[in-house]
Q: What sequence folds into this?
């Protein structure tokens, strides 16, 4: 079977151009001023500026926006509480947070949950809210953030938590990461993603679900890493793109709960809590005209 390819990737030269762009931006007076202003602004102000910027892009690019009214997960009160808790410290949008929530929820109970790329701790907290009783491994260099601030944010959740500080997977010096049932890899660049995927795939349960952030979006290092991983691990592993900009990786041995959507939905309970119409269900069939 043909391996997936991404035509627009032209490998190393692209990566060099990208890092040169970032270096130049960090060196320029305007770039430094922007960083300084951003770090001085309170999180809700940064959030409001981002919302305005994204609003303009949305008008141009999204011709038909999603209608959230009857989407199950956004009516889940615990999901909404979790999003409210992290919305000022993350760049994740609601669809990606919803994907994480649902996929993490349906992962096999009793396994460990790993996040590589914690940064300010937002998606880690979201996953801890989703599976409060699970055992967590969180890996980051913490070189771009105030580690103490992030640690106190994470510790305040009082979960079963091990933090691996340094470059993953080298930071797992005692080989503690085992029996992974759910992994979230959010590391932006090729090398980190490629090494994390190799490491995680050797240490996870056969039912494991791996979500990779920033897949099929610019910059394309993560997409390259996923494609390279599949080149060597296909057909054992498959990757499915999920909008916007994530990929979900699962083994094809039929073991993963992902193959089912979990328990069948409780139609009566759902329709009570947010008046979801029940027509077209087993209990309330619609005649075919
Ligand atoms: C986009 S941020 C993660 C954002 C986070 N998931 C959130 O809540 O939105 C990417 C993080 O990955 C970390 N990172 C990249 N490569 C890494 C590696 N090999 N080992 C550990 N951390 C890494 C960076 O330090 C950075 O904090």
A:
């Amino acid at each position: 079977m043909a391996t997936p390819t991404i035509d627009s990737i032209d490998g190393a030269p692209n990566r060099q151009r990208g890092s040169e762009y970032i270096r130049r931006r960090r060196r320029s007076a305007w770039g430094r001023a922007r960083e300084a202003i951003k770090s001085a602004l309170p999180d809700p102000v940064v959030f409001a500026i981002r919302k305005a910027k994204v609003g303009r892009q949305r008008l141009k690019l999204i011709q038909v926006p999603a209608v959230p009214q009857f989407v199950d997960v956004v009516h889940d009160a615990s999901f909404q509480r979790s999003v409210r808790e992290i919305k000022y410290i993350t760049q994740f949008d609601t669809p990606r947070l919803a994907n994480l929530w649902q996929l993490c929820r349906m992962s096999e109970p009793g396994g460990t949950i790993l996040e590589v790329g914690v940064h300010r701790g937002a998606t880690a907290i979201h996953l801890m809210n989703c599976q409060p009783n699970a055992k967590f491994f969180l890996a980051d260099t913490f070189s771009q953030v105030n580690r103490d601030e992030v640690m106190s944010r994470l510790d305040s959740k009082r979960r079963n938590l091990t933090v691996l500080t340094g470059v993953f997977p080298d930071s797992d010096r005692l080989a503690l990461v085992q029996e992974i049932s759910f992994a979230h890899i959010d590391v932006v660049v090729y090398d980190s993603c490629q090494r994390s995927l190799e490491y995680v795939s050797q240490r996870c349960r056969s039912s494991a679900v791996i979500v990779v952030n920033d897949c099929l979006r610019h910059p394309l290092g993560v997409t390259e890493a996923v494609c390279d991983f599949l080149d060597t691990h296909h057909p054992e592993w498959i990757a499915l793109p999920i909008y916007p900009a994530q990929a979900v990786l699962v083994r094809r041995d039929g073991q993963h709960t992902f193959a089912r959507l979990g328990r069948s939905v409780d139609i009566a309970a759902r329709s009570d809590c947010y008046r979801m119409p029940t027509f077209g269900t087993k209990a309330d069939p619609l005649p075919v005209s």
User: Anything to note?
Assistant: Strands lie at 112-116, 135-140, 160-165, 180-185, 204-213, 237-242, 246-251. Confidence is low (pLDDT under 50) at residues 1-16. The chain has two domains: 25-64, 71-253+264-278. The domain at 71-253+264-278 is CATH 3.40.50.150 (Rossmann fold).
